[in-house]
Batch of 2 targets.
Target 1
Amino acid sequence: MVGKKSGKALRDEGLERTDNNMELSSWPQIPAINQKNYYTDYLKRDDQNLAFRLQNEEARTKMTKKAKDHDRALAMAKTETAEGEGEGDGDAHMEDAEETPTEMAGSKVIIIHMGSQNLRIGLASDALPKTLPMVIARKAATSESEDHDEPKPKRFKHDDGSEMEPEKAFGSEWSSHFNRMSADLKVHMRQNKRRMLPNSKEMVVNYNRRTVPEIISEHNDPMRAEWTEISNPPPEYIVGQPALRVPDSSKPRYKLYWPIRNGWCNEKDYTSKRSLFLDISLIVEDAIKNQLHLTSKKDWTQYSCVFVIPDLYDKSYVTQILDMLMREFAFARVCFIQESLAATFGAGFTSACVVDIGAQKTSICCVEEGMCIENSRVNLKFGGQDVTETFVKMMLHDHFPYADINLRRRHDFLLAEELKKNICTMNEASVSPQVFDFHLRVAGQDTRKYTFKAFDEVHLAPMGVFEPVIFDNSDKIIGRRTLIDRSVDIYDGSPNDPTSAAQSEILTAMAPPLPSHSKTNGDSHLAVPDVQTTPSRPQHPHALSKVQDLEGTPRSSVAGSPAPENTGTSQAGGTSTPAATAAAAQAPRPPAVEDRDDIMPVFALDNAILTSIAHAARSDEKKMRDFIGGIMVVGGGSLTSGFHLFLEERLQALRPGFSKEIMIGTPPRDLDPQVVVWKGASIFGKLSGTNDSWIGRLEYDRLGPRLMAYKCMWAY
Ligand SMILES: Nc1ncnc2c1ncn2[C@@H]1O[C@H](COP(=O)(O)OP(=O)(O)OP(=O)(O)O)[C@@H](O)[C@H]1O
């Protein structure tokens, strides 16, 4: 064809021959595609996506089955009428057939909520979950209390061996915080016209100094504790409640491991990621077998699982858990739900500001119409266990008669928890010198009955959630990211764990200055956490007022730009070019606060709640009023008596403009605040038809964790 064209025509087409009349190449020349007409729907339609296809197929199968059942029911009804025996009409029979499910809804769905201290597990059809300690005792050379030998001799003696006054045992800084809180409380109580004896503290200290325990022989103690007997041969590990009841001095020794600490994986006490997740799976497996009585693992393939994850979850943790549930436990389907969302389901609210005070972490999140508001998520690293520790410290400071108490010993930990639950209160009217008693039960020893007096310690210890400087925050970030790497974007390598503007703001307020030698290339996770410099209270107590102030518009830089600076552009939609990304990576700039592992999120609860709400409301005053009037407190840490009223007063003092609206709610129907999240997840697990976040076996086998992007209600 080309040969027949004129030289001009060929010149125009750019295909002019050389002088020997031959073409430059025998390869066919392909003209460039006209971009105007260029179109592809590759990966743009749902039917190209396995996850959606399987979902549709499942829906179709269900509809076909329903139609078949319908036909069958009609046929049966006709036969019966023809025989003249049935008096009722066919519809009634059909309804009967539809309304008689073969098995109770949710009886094949297992709901798992793992906490730092408690595991809650049950079938979705159960009214309440089974609660057991999230702990495993492993055979070891020494027990954990022997590893950390810190009781009386070390704490209460000077280096030269002379006796140390308990007031000095915890350092002058801690004592001065305690004394200041005590003085503030006195002033506050006077303002509220509460009567106080001027020398209450001295009375308490003098009483405690003098008191000696009464010995009760073991056979005279009707309430003596049941200790776990070690069988022969001794088991390699013991889990749950029996683990907590293994005597410290057992032969052989057992050491306790808590795989979840402060709401994160416990990277401090484990030496490898494998052993950490092995323990998690052993605890969960044991609970399914012994608490839910599903002893044969083969049957688990017929069960689905709803797993509760934190609002600000670590992606690598979720991926690992999904793998465990799918591969090891071989569940038929798995789905995830975030804690706060589950709490609103459990309470039956459509929107609320959920405050979950657990044992070692407190999370806050505003939920609106079935979605967590991402920028309102806050996760603080303290909870009920910090209150227990602080209560014991305060009591020791005031000459607690059982001076040898050591929370690393199992019996002492259980005793301290019990004392805290029974004695601590946020009710100011109950603050007066009072006598209490307790029984100390140690395996193989006679029971000792102690009496002691307590005064403001019962109030000041739980007050710590509003003044976390009194908590011991020194070891909470030790080991973070040593076993489990931060999740990163597969394209640009930037951290891609979920972030929240509210959390960033708190982290910014808490951030210790960056060490001058630290490389600011985003490799912040390599920096050694500088625990000593971490302040336990905001350096700028009013740093948040700008954001929280709805009347004014000024915003802090964090609030104005929720995404971290060095990840923002790439996450926002991948608009940055590789060259720009490379240039940006080389530019020296400080790492975003979310990417720093040396910041301890420990912040006053009332301020944290207001920060969360401010970010959820985004200057919309009506929303602000809605959330501030719908604060729901859940979790075991909120069970301290008088907590709700106290929190309400604190918030009113901080936001007098909203004092009429502020309302702290409890879950309805007298539901235990500790199980609301589990309950919500069980409701979620029973939803049929509307829940499309189930991850099935086939799709997981083919796509693996990539599937999460299609299956999560939130941005994964
Ligand atoms: N009646 C009570 N009064 C005060 N505190 C209580 C009471 N009952 C339980 N707690 C505290 O609640 C905490 C346990 O709460 P919860 O089970 O919600 O925590 P978790 O889910 O295991 O932990 P986290 O949420 O930190 O991961 C413990 O610190 C316990 O001492």
Target 2
Amino acid sequence: MQFITLNGINLHFQVTGLGDGKPVLVFINSLGTDFRIWREVVAELADQFAIVTYDKRGHGLSDLGEPPYRMADHASDLAALLDHLGVEKAIICGLSIGGQIAQQLYADRPDLISALIFCGTAARIGDSDFWHQRIGNIEANGLEAVADGILERWFTPQFRDPANVKFPGYRTMLVRQPVAGYVGSCAAIAAFDMREKAGQIAVPTLCVVGDQDGATPPEMVKDFAKAIPGARFEIVAGAGHIPCVETPEQLSGLIGDFTAKIAWEQ
Ligand SMILES: O=C(O)CC1=CCC(=O)O1
């Protein structure tokens, strides 16, 4: 477990295998989660990659900074972390808002990126009204009030079975995020629209989505993939919005297969 202050924010991060000469893979977490969502994927891929995970500002053990955030704030934190670690190029994998942070990083610091993996994300998710309603509701009533609806989009009914001990654990992860950090990131999503720029992505790209994703449904992610030249599109069976938790072996397999073709370029 490591911490570093960058951009005036104390960031919580973890690295494995850096300096071993392996290609670097970076994971960016989604709204209302911290980097532990990648734990099983990291375990699957640690032999092949040096891996960086971190808690974006306002989430997990990273500082709040000054919400509301812009997507550029999130991307700047990641760029500063990679610069600090001496990572010159990496495969960037982002889930949901994490995928939007990856898009912003590609716009701002393309030198850092050799390939992109977009998981349950798009150039635009919802509209401004949708996000500002969510912000108002959470500011008034807290994350507890919206948690069950969010979890229905995150996970399949099978995962939400009361007998599955992981489910209440991830519910706890969601409701313990700081409200100001959560809604600060909602504001970044509300303002984010890269639809005009998706066609300019010029690195190998994989778009992947759970077949039961209730937040960014397969059709939305497929349309995003179509807008990116040469992007590969894959659907993971048996997963909602967070395949890294629900189907880590499948997701890791897709990442391994995709990166096998491009890792040598780094
Ligand atoms: O929380 C949700 O509803 C799903 C989601 C949208 C953006 C993100 O990062 O997660």
